[in-house]
Amino acid sequence: AAARDLCAARPAMSSAVMGRGVMAREVRPDAKRSFVVVDDGVLACATEGEGASVLLIPDLGVDARVFRRQLDDLCRDARVITYDQRGVGRSTAAASATLTIAQLADDAAIVLRHAESAPAVVVGAGLGAAVAVELVLRHGDAVSALVLLAPAFAADARLETVLRSWCAGDGMDVEARVRAMVPRLLGPASLADARTCEPFAATLRETTIDVPQSTLRAQVAALLRWLGTRAGRLARLDVPVVVAVGAKDVLTPPAHAQALARELPHPHVEILAAAGHALMIERADSVNRLIRDVVAQVRTERTLP
C-alpha cells in the first residue's frame, strides 16, 4: 500500500489509524452549509461557530476538509468560514486553464459577502496564502488580518518542477498523487514516524480525491503565473500579517516566507522547528495558537476608542 511506501515504519494501516487522520465525509452537525453563485457555477461553503470571522483558504490539490483541526478548535469562539475552491469537491464553478489567483481572490470575497462575515481574519495555506494576499490587495475592506501558512512568493524553478510533476498527464490516480505529495509536505521527523505519516497520508487521500487532475493543473499554472508579480505592492498594507513556515519545508522553504516578509511593513514571522509544508495538520496546535492570537489582536483593536 502507499502508506508502506511512504512511511518509515511499515505496518499495514489500520482503520483506527486512518480514523485519526481522515475527516469524516458526513456533515459536521453544527455547520451551516450553502452554495454561493459565481460566474459559471457555485462554490460550496460552510459556516460554523459564533464570534470574530475567520476565513480558511486551502492549498492546491485538497478540499476544505484539510482544515479539520482548525475547525475543531476555532469554532468554539469564532465564526469560521470554509469553502471548496472552484473545480474542487461540490463546487461546480470551473477551474479552467485560464484560472488566475485574482479570480480565486474574487471568489473568496464573494464567499465572505455571502456569509456576511467581512471583514475577516483570512488564513491561507500555500496556494491559499497567495489567494489571501491577492484578496487584501483587491478587496481590502474584506480583510481584518492575514495568517499566511507556508507561502510561496518569488518565482522558483525548483518549486515549478515539483508542482508540474504532480499534475503531468491525466493518468495520475489518487494513490500516485499521494505518493508524490507526502514526501514534499511533511518534515523529516514526521515522515520517519508512522504514527504521524500514516494518518497524514490518509488525510491527504480523503481531501485530494475530489480534486480532478485538470483542477490541480489549473491551480498550479495560476500560482506559477502569480509568483514574483507582487513585489513592491505590499508595503502599504495596514492589516496585521503573520507569516508561518516550517523550518524543514522542502516545497516552499523559509526563504519564500522571508522574501514575502521583506515586502510587508510590520510582519510577524514564525519559523516552526522541524515542520514541513502542511502546517495546518503537522503543527495544528501551533497554527491554531497563531490564528487565535491574531483574532484576539483584531478584537482588541476594534474595542479601542
How would you characterize this protein structure?
Helix 2 packs across helix 9 (194-208) and helix 6 packs antiparallel against helix 10. The protein has 305 residues and is of the alpha/beta class. Residues 9-26 have low confidence and may be disordered. 48% of the residues are buried. The longest helix is centred in the C-terminal third of the chain and has 20 residues, at 284-303. Helix content is 44%, strand content 17%.
Radius of gyration: 18 Å
**How would you characterize the largest beta sheet?**
8 strands, mixed
What's the tally of helices? 13
If strands are numbered along the chain, what order do they take across the biggest sheet? 1-2-4-3-5-6-7-8
* Overall mean confidence score, pLDDT: 90
Question: What portion of the residues fall into strands of 2 or more residues?
Answer: 15-25%
**What characteristic shape results from the CA principal axes?**
globular
Low-pLDDT ranges: 9-26
| Classification by helices and strands | alpha/beta
Number of strands: 8
Helix content: 40-55%
> How far apart lie the N and C ends?
59 Å
Helices and strands, in N-to-C order?
A: HHEEEHEHEHEHHHHHEHEHH
List key phrases describing it.
305 residues, alpha/beta, eight-stranded mixed β-sheet, globular
Secondary structure layout:
Elements: H1 2-6, H2 15-21, E1 32-38, E2 41-48, E3 52-57, H3 68-74, E4 78-83, H4 101-114, E5 120-125, H5 127-138, E6 143-149, H6 157-166, H7 174-185, H8 188-191, H9 194-208, H10 213-226, E7 241-246, H11 254-263, E8 267-272, H12 279-282, H13 284-303
Parallel strand pairs: 3-4, 3-5, 5-6, 6-7, 7-8
Antiparallel strand pairs: 1-2, 2-4
Helix pairs in contact: 2-9, 3-13, 4-5, 6-10, 7-9
